[in-house]
Amino acid sequence: MSTRLTPVRIADDIFEMRADTPRQAQKLASALRAEEMVEDVVAGLASVCIKFNPRQQDKIADWLGAFALSPKDNESAAAPLTIDIRYGGADGPDFAMICEALSLSPEALIAMHTDQNHIVEMIGFTPGFAYISGLPDQAKVPRLSNPRSRVPAGSVGISAAFTGIYSLAGPGGWPLIGRTAQTLFDPDAETPFLLQPGQRLKFKAV
Question: What angle do CA 109, 113, 118 make, to 5 degrees?
């Protein structure tokens, strides 16, 4: 692991550790979640925030520093989660526009999206919204110049070679290629949001 993983205190009960790559951040976060000393872990594209009990402040920094030098490898070997997607039409109002922008036929765009292995890099700008890597560089389409005031839950968009999935309805500016009917948010579940950082995904056209 990189020497950039030195923990930096950013609040009374929170440390941040910088990573060199999204995969490194996810690997570190996955390992930290298994440790009793850590209360919560939030992974970003190049950083991990660790919440701890302030009463342990005398030993948490040294412990994290040692942990960063030789973190446990707890990456999940579970099979990828398959997300069924209805592409185009009312579910993907920007599908045709993206095909034209990328000079792809509808079939080629769907194949490009479903043939890849994807991973949830982080959850951000609205609750449960998943930033998902795995698309080739050619899929770098821009955000919409006029964001929508309301995007239905389950909507799937692409931008900047990422896939974005809206777990909840809300505003958004990602060009939409489709929608999934799978339950992405269950308030009664122990883990309310289906998609989690580090999770591997495959997309399937239905």
Answer: 165
